[in-house]
Write a structure and sequence with these properties.
It is a single chain. The chain has 341 residues and is α/β, with parallel strands linked by helices. The chain has two domains: 4-175, Thiamin diphosphate (ThDP)-binding fold, Pyr/PP domains (Rossmann fold); 183-339, 3-Layer(aba) Sandwich (Rossmann fold), CATH 3.40.50.920. It is built from eleven helices and twelve strands. The chain has a six-stranded parallel β-sheet with strand order 2-1-3-4-6-5, sandwiched between helices. The chain has a six-stranded mixed β-sheet with strand order 7-8-10-9-11-12, with helices on both faces. Helix 1 (4-18) packs parallel to helix 6, helix 3 (58-70) runs parallel beside helix 4 and helix 7 packs across helix 11. The longest helix is centred in the C-terminal third of the chain and has 17 residues, at 223-239. The radius of gyration is 20 Å and the shape is globular.
């Protein structure tokens, strides 16, 4: 079974094969090393004129990509660790996402910035963060986060080939070696993919096979969706509480079809919502999801909660890192609390 890493690598190769305007820029991405996490492996060998290794300058990479996109190319930038995205922020906030508006819709800026994100590998406080929440509300920026479901590489290829604007593509490190699972790979679950008109980013719903209707809705993305899937099994088999896990791959707002077409109707049915993310809780994705649901449903939202990382730096020590980051047991406890209300 191909892993998420295999799928993403295949997605990059597909984009390079289908459009000669696709380029790759990044640090240490040439073969045989092939990048810190090996997602672009093989590209430099097969397309040596279209893969460019760079000095350690994330701001320079983003700025160069913006210029290349304005000239009609489709650059893909690899930022070696997501912690360093803040070095691209000026280019994203003040240039790349604004060019289309500043020039009256006469230009597109089709570029993708991909980066590994997240902890649980003992890399310490400057290489383990989950910071995409700082980019979710930037007008004009699409933020995508693949899960270990469906075909993550197809999502990446579609972003590169078909999205006319800038995309931030967030890859959780622990997902790389997870299998990219289809419905047949999850016999304990009913896995349903959802696509939405005008949106290439799918979403997924997971329910325990043959279970009664769910009483709690869980919203989770990236590796947090894997934790939610494990928690769903524990809740069903040990507590007889049945949940539905709804997993988006588009996590930015506004224009989030997952929220309008999948999450809201599900919460209307259950009246209970738990948002799960690996980033810190304050002002995060979960906070935005809960706020929007509460604004829409009002008193029909009977109970809600969040599971997220502690609002602290990520320790290097494994026991301390585990304590700082959300675990499946945290989801189980919070669902039990919500279900009792």
């Amino acid at each position: 079974m191909p892993t998420v890493l295999d799928s993403l690598n295949a997605g990059l190769h597909r984009a390079f094969a289908e459009d000669e305007r696709v380029l790759l820029l990044g640090e240490d991405i040439l073969d045989p090393y092939g990048g810190a996490f090996k997602v672009p492996r093989g590209l430099a060998t097969q397309y040596p004129a279209r893969v460019f290794t760079s000095p350690v300058s994330e701001a320079g990479l983003a700025g160069m990509a913006g210029g290349l996109a304005l000239r009609g190319l489709k650059p893909v930038v690899e930022i070696m660790f997501g912690d360093f995205l803040m070095l691209t922020a000026d280019q994203l906030l003040n240039s790349i996402t604004k060019f289309g508006w500043m020039y009256g819709g006469q230009v597109d800026v089709p570029l993708v910035i991909r980066t590994p994100m997240g902890g649980r590998r003992g890399y310490g406080p400057t290489h383990s963060q989950t910071i995409e929440k700082h980019f979710l509300g930037v007008p004009g920026l699409t933020v995508l986060a693949p899960a270990a479901l469906g075909n993550p590489g197809a999502l990446l290829a579609d972003a590169i080939l078909n999205d006319p604007g800038p995309v931030l593509f967030v890859e959780n490190k622990l997902l790389y070696l997870e299998p990219a699972r289809a419905a047949s790979d999850l016999p304990e679950f009913e896995l349903t993919p959802h696509t939405f008109p005008g949106d290439y980013a799918p979403a997924y719903s997971l329910r325990i096979s043959g279970a009664p209707p769910p009483t709690v809705t869980i919203a989770a993305y990236g590796y947090a969706a894997e934790l939610a899937r494990k928690a769903a099994l524990l809740l069903a088999y040990e507590h007889e509480i049945f949940v539905e896990v709804l997993v988006p791959t588009r996590i930015s707002f506004p224009g989030n079809a997952y929220f309008d077409n999948l999450l809201l109707p599900a919460v209307q049915r259950t009246g209970r919502l738990l948002a799960v993310e690996e980033g810190t809780a304050a002002l995060g994705w979960g906070a935005e999801v809960l706020a929007r649901v509460a604004e829409t449903l009002g008193s029909n939202l009977r109970a809600a909660g969040r599971v997220a990382a502690e609002d602290t730096p990520i320790p290097a020590s494994t026991p301390m890192e585990d304590a700082a980051l959300p675990q499946a047991g945290d989801i189980v406890r919070e669902v039990i609390r919500i279900a009792s209300r």
